[in-house]
TrEMBL record:
Organism from which the protein derives: Astyanax mexicanus (Blind cave fish)
Protein name (record): Prenylcysteine oxidase 1
Residue stretches in coiled coil: none
Gene Ontology molecular functions: prenylcysteine oxidase activity
UniProt keyword Transcription regulation, yes or no: no
Entry function: Prenylcysteine oxidase that cleaves the thioether bond of prenyl-L-cysteines, such as farnesylcysteine and geranylgeranylcysteine. Only active against free prenylcysteines and not prenylcysteine residues within prenylated proteins or peptides. Involved in the final step in the degradation of prenylated proteins, by degrading prenylcysteines after the protein has been degraded.
Residues annotated as signal peptide: 1-28
Pfam family, one: NAD_binding_8
Reactions the enzyme catalyzes: [(2E,6E,10E)-geranylgeranyl]-L-cysteine + O2 + H2O = (2E,6E,10E)-geranylgeranial + L-cysteine + H2O2; S-(2E,6E)-farnesyl-L-cysteine + O2 + H2O = (2E,6E)-farnesal + L-cysteine + H2O2; an S-polyprenyl-L-cysteine + O2 + H2O = a polyprenal + L-cysteine + H2O2
Family per similarity comment: Belongs to the prenylcysteine oxidase family.
Length: 501
């Protein structure tokens, strides 16, 4: 499917048709271009939105990006004894095409690959430990779960494979007004009102496999068991594949790079309010914000909100109109505490009698055990490492990273580690507390020319989804500004793209 489109594109290139581009037929002279666009939030979503807006609207529009905290948002690093470690979003999937494109365009590099080894802990002992030998893993999994684990890869790949079409739709300038519409275009909408557990059970996976293997993945990635929506569940399982990567020097470099490349002005300040101002000739938004020197405000033709509007996250008030969030789309973001410990692990805590010097497991996932104080425990490498770097064994004094719902107490850490040289803690309101079935997702369009990138997080929260939603917001803003209704919410795009050509 993908290949077919690629070859069609190659053909178009040969014919020179691509020069017209997806939006080439619109005569820009007919409509007035917007003069000023505001993007609220300088995380990967906001910075990608600024970049894609520049692509759509061209060089002359002024793009202001408001950032109350630090550019990068939930991608952030912490310095531990002179080395930086990811303390927010860490891993990127090989099929995350927008992020891949950013890294290439910005001249950044992926960090050298580190070999990881996974184990599963049930609170008493390690119930599974990956072997270095593929064949050993194969036989162990086969013995315990039949073909479940091998089918899992096919199942996840089948869903992701269909999902990949969305990149083609975006390339051709198509946008969607809601998360549901976007997912419907790639046959994934049904995963929003099903739990991962239901979807997998319906497709013949065993409950044992879901409890023992699937849940540890969703706990690590989204702090919940397999009762989350099936779409975010698939995103979580895709994380269990090989080839995961991150950006050398830190994932946050993507945001900083994109903002610089697209010549957005970064306004270091907190947006407090957005007011719709309507005159005879036009509607604009007045954005109120506070900077070091005090409160200020400015008018914009288009506003893109690239931060969650749910409780405790952004505190923006609206006047002149009332967007439906969060009133009509209730829900909470869950707290995830990211704790880094430089220290030596207590091997007996894991209920194993292996010697620490031989213990090379890097990622310890957990089953759904309420008594466990953490969701996952992993040894992590800094954001910059030399080629051929390998994780040291557990006997070394090294950096471990834990995700937990609550901060870990000194007592808990004392039991887990034989020695500790330092502890670094970051509390996040990390991602939605996914509660299926069918939690309706907020709309991408909050009002005319006011768009909401973070609606996508209610389907799944990850860096690539933010980037994908940012591209959608830019296309939506462009198509609606120019009245291109035929580029929005089109059904059956796959056949249409085939026959249009
Ligand atoms: C612990 C953790 C681990 C994760 N692991 C992964 C992972 O491995 N892989 C992955 O892909 N994803 C991961 N994620 C998810 C990922 O971090 C997010 O989906 C993504 O970074 C969201 O980006 P964003 O730009 O949409 O939002 P944010 O990064 O939250 O950006 C919003 C920005 O807006 C700013 N802001 C808020 N309010 C205002 C205001 N009123 N005025 C001005 N600015 C404001 C904030 O300061 C922030 O910088 C993880 C998240 C967490 C918390
Ligand atoms: C789930 O979504 C599908 C597809 O949109 C729909 O047909 C079905 O009725 C929904 N089920 C529930 C329980 O909402
Ligand atoms: C924006 O600022 C102006 C001037 O300070 C104020 O009158 C107005 O109420 C503010 N609007 C919002 C939505 O906060
Ligand atoms: C190591 O873990 C075991 C098992 O949880 C515990 O009994 C022991 O006290 C721990 N060691 C230290 C130094 O806390």
């Amino acid at each position: 499917m993908f290949l077919r489109y690629l070859s069609v594109r190659a053909l178009l290139l040969l014919l020179g048709i691509c020069l017209i581009g997806p939006r080439g037929l619109a005569s820009a002279a007919e409509t007035k271009e917007p003069k000023k666009i505001a993007v609220i939030g300088g995380g990967i979503g906001g910075s990608a939105a600024a970049y894609f807006l520049r692509q759509e609207f061209g060089a002359s529009v002024k793009i202001d990006v408001f950032e109350a905290g630090t550019v990068g948002g939930r991608t952030a690093t912490e310095n531990v004894k002179g080395q930086d470690y990811e303390i927010g979003a860490a891993v990127i999937h090989p099929l995350n095409l927008h992020l891949k494109h950013f890294v290439e365009t910005l001249g950044l590099s992926p960090r050298a690959e580190v070999k990881n080894k996974m184990a599963i802990f049930n609170g008493k002992e390690l119930t599974f430990e990956e072997s270095d030998w593929f064949i050993v893993n194969f036989i162990r999994m086969l013995w315990r779960y039949g073909f479940n684990s091998y089918r899992k890869f096919g199942w996840v790949e089948g869903i992701l494979g269909k999902f990949m079409s969305v990149y083609q739709y975006q390339k051709f300038g198509y946008a969607f007004s809601s998360v549901e519409q976007l997912l419907r275009s790639v046959d994934a909408e049904r995963f929003l009102n099903q739990t991962l557990e239901e979807a997998m059970r319906a497709d013949g996976f065993s409950q044992a496999f879901i409890n023992d293997i699937v849940t540890p993945n969703t706990r690590t990635n989204f702090g919940l068991n397999a009762a989350l929506n099936a779409f975010v569940g698939v995103v979580s399982l895709a994380d269990g594949t090989s080839g995961l990567w991150s950006v050398e020097g830190g994932n946050k470099r993507m945001s900083a790079g994109l903002l610089q490349l697209c010549k957005a002005e970064i306004i270091q300040g907190r947006v407090t309010g957005i007011t719709l101002k309507t005159s005879k000739s036009a509607s604009q938004y007045e954005v109120n914000y506070s900077v070091d020197s005090g409160p200020s405000r400015s008018l914009y033709d288009i506003v893109i909100i690239a931060t969650p509007l749910h409780k405790g996250l952004s505190d923006i008030s609206f006047s002149g109109f009332s967007p439906p969030i969060p009133s009509h789309f209730s829900g909470d973001f869950q707290q995830i505490v990211n704790t880094l410990v430089l220290g030596r692990l207590n091997m007996s805590y894991l209920g194993t009698d292996q010697r620490a010097a031989d213990f090379l497991v890097s990622d310890i996932l957990t089953t759904d055990n309420k008594a466990l104080p953490f969701n996952s425990l992993a040894t992590v490498a800094p954001v910059k490492i030399p080629q051929g770097y390998a994780h040291p064994p557990a006997s070394a004094n090294k950096v471990w990273k834990m995700f937990s719902a609550q901060p870990l107490s000194e007592e808990q850490l004392g039991e887990m580690f034989e020695s500790q040289e330092g502890v670094w803690v970051k509390r996040w309101l990390a991602y939605p507390s996914y509660t299926p079935p069918n939690h309706r997702t907020p709309p991408f369009i909050l009002h005319d020319h006011l768009y909401y990138v973070n609606a996508i997080e209610w389907a799944a929260s990850c860096m690539e989804m933010s980037a994908l939603s940012a591209r959608n917001a830019a296309l939506l803003a462009y198509n609606r500004w120019h009245g291109h209704a035929h580029k929005i919410d089109q059904e059956d795009l796959e056949t249409r793209l085939r026959t249009e050509l």
